[in-house]
């Protein structure tokens, strides 16, 4: 098989993948049974949309009810803040209120404000659509992205079904961004970050939110994903020094048994605690808040 045949084969495979996402779940869509696990409606689904392998409780958990009541009170305060976002009073209160937690129902508005998503969108009108077109023609990452979308957050209602609306959005955002930011391209950890953003945003907002988090000097997350992973390497080195200073016996024990930090802390830093998804949400919010105040 010569180079021309390989390029033709690659283009055909890319077009086939894009067509599957474009078609979604309409009648006649090709979806293997193993790709589309079923679930019972009456299994417990938490307030964030994640499905748990247990039955719905017969009574309301008192602690959960208390948390919801506290969040309702916070929601009133946040609604007032969002209406008066640029006032000095809001900037004074922002630190403590983000630290306590942004109400889940208002995360979309709050995240977009903290990251200035609307401003960036106005500056790049039509760019996202252009990147999607380029991705369909030239993407070299479509196959890997397709594989990662198929396994990302499959326990969540948005991503449970193969080629669901949110799976389509996740594929579109990742393939488009790989074309837009050629320095980073696509790295597997990016699917977790984009997946969480899409739980609260539409496609284009999630695209620009991810771009801001990766490239704005206040956040500079690109170093976690670019070739060589320079920021990840630096974080692992910091972790080792901190562990040696504050928990020297544990560090010595790990070293004795050849337990390198990368074995257990890789997913803490590389994908921002993504396997504990609400840790990722809180880490993102704290980073947005700190950088917003600088």
From TrEMBL:
Gene3D superfamilies hit by this protein: putative rabgap domain of human tbc1 domain family member 14 like domains, Ypt/Rab-GAP domain of gyp1p, domain 1, Ypt/Rab-GAP domain of gyp1p, domain 3
The molecular function GO annotations come to: GTPase activator activity; small GTPase binding
Ranges for the Rab-GAP TBC domain?
101-294
**Any Pfam family matching the protein:** RabGAP-TBC
What the entry lists under SUPFAM superfamilies is as follows: Ypt/Rab-GAP domain of gyp1p
Would you say which domain of life the source belongs to?
Eukaryota
Protein name (record): RabGAP-TBC domain containing protein
Q: Which organism is it from?
A: Asbolus verrucosus (Desert ironclad beetle)
